[in-house]
Amino acid sequence: MKYIVMLCDGMAGYPLEKYDGKTTMEMAEKPNMDALCKKSIVGMIRTVPAGMKPGSDVANLAAMGYDATKCYTGRSPLEAMSIGIDMKETDIAMRCNLVTLSEDEEYENKVMADYSSEEISTEEAGELIKVLNENLSTEELEFFRGISYRHCLIWHNGPKTLELTPPHDISDRVVTEYLPKNEILLNMMKKSYGLLKDHPVNVARREKGLNPANSIWLWGEGTRPAIPNFTETYNLDGSVISAVDLIKGIGITAGLEVIEVEGATGNITTNFANKGKAALKTLLDGKDYVYIHVEAADECGHRGEAENKVKSIEFIDRDVIGPLLKGLEEAGEEYTIMIMPDHPTPIALKTHTSDPVPFMIYRSNKEEKGIDTFTEKKAAETGIFYETGMELVAKFFEYKN
User: Fold this and answer.
1) Stated pTM of the model
2) CATH code, residues 2-73+226-396
């Protein structure tokens, strides 16, 4: 039996007036998901434990069967693992976004215009991170380049009491009340604006009509991660497929193989088909389990792009799920697939919420009586509800042989 988790990041949401009260899941044409859900266990799952922030970190841990209340130490440490940073026990890791702030006000009164600097390229970002390291790094504070707008700051022997705000939670808002209370970090962010706003990379971006990456924004603080080994926990040899350092970091920390996919970007331009091909290959090459993470719907939700969020769901269905399952069937492999978002990312809010999300579990050798279409509303109507990811994953592996 092969086990597949198809994690559609941020796929769930709220009804939209422009779609006559339908969600983007309801609007999307997804024949593969809808065919499977007719023969699946379908219900709702709470992926964000009470009292925890609704981030992709804790929600994806839940989808892998981990208890975030026991093993979660912060988001950025997981990303640091993917980047290849060997964190010490006394290190504090922080996500360092390259963001676009409005340019006419004093720093404290600027607006978060774009939490991703219009998804700046990794090459451009590398030049900016180099400047930051040359001018702002100390023996205690050090920048590390990641991918696109997502980077890392390590504070050696840093304080564990930081309370920092994700920039995607404050899109289009004045940043005043969300700035770090820690003076060292606040001063670093202010200085970054002076270093970056007129950097040649940003001059060139403005000339092209693109948002400049004119400041850093620090968040996602935490200590070295402590996630149990997946193979030892579930007795399965598995892989993770994602374009996002966070998910790669969870995989690395859990002892799963991370598969790099050509053309994987973490947004709607990602190579959906290559992700499906990579998943099929790793399963046919002998892996028992694959965790396929696609970020596109979440990014579209953060940007308020309803049409692109619908397209993202359709691309996952057409280019990942369809070919993957066809390939397994042609190879004569029995499989169990679980399809779900990690959390909602409603278009109107442009950020995550803690609401439960829909899931389906389909077994190729044991069909169930399911529902007609895979949506938030229909899944809730089944009355099946799991309070934790551990309970859901236990059901997923119920007939593991």
Assistant:
1) 0.88
2) 3.40.720.10
